[in-house]
Specification:
Number of helices: 8
Largest sheet: 5 strands, mixed
CATH topology: Glycerol-3-phosphate (1)-acyltransferase
Strand order of the largest sheet: 2-8-7-3-6
Number of domains: 1
CATH architecture: 3-Layer(aba) Sandwich
Oligomer: single chain
Amino acid sequence: MTEDTPKKLTLSIALRSILFNCYFYLAVTFAIIFLLAPLSFLKSARPMRRAILMVINSIIYMFEKIAGVKIIEVGTEYIPKSKGFIYCSKHMSNMDALILYRRSPNLTALAKKELFRVPLLSLVFHKMGVMAINRGAGQAQKQTPMIAKELIKRKIPMIIFAEGTRAVVGERRSLKSGVYYYQKQNPELDVIVVSHNSGVSWPKKSWIKWPGILTIEYHPPMPKNLEKEEFMNEISKRLLDRSEELMLLKF
């Protein structure tokens, strides 16, 4: 697969990319040292979430103004309100996760249980409601009922990257089936597929930030009571096929 139009690196794009990268890493470093670390000792998670949202808003603002990327969100009316649900998202860059957090500031995620052994990181994870998961063979699936019930009880969304890791533009990675079991065992838990083209503007393992339009598309909740193969095929259409259309890829 190839992109529709070859890109040409100009001096302006290079300088803008360097400037944004400097801001991004400085902002993240500042947030960790001066915000997350001290705020993790407070009883309430609200100050930390507000601080994170403030930093994320500044990063997204600079991404648009410096890198010249216009961000468009489509289908926001499909995002559930005041209930637990799952974002099943394509993952291509740091920006897609930041945009989802801005859209849902009470967003949570999963992390390997080993990471909870790191003292400061453990404090931050607990404060943010991040849930530990054992990724050993067959263990993750056993934890899905407990995790799903926690989302429903706390009325919060959780993000799952169906491909498991970041993908480059034009790369099709096999989809993980974990999201299927969340909905199968808890039909009231909506699954919102998120397709986008963030990897075009922010390519994996590249310092260049390309100007253009970054489109995030939220799809209607996945149909209930689908068999596994049918469910995953529909996920593939919404997440992979639609993202490739947004990336203007040719087959």
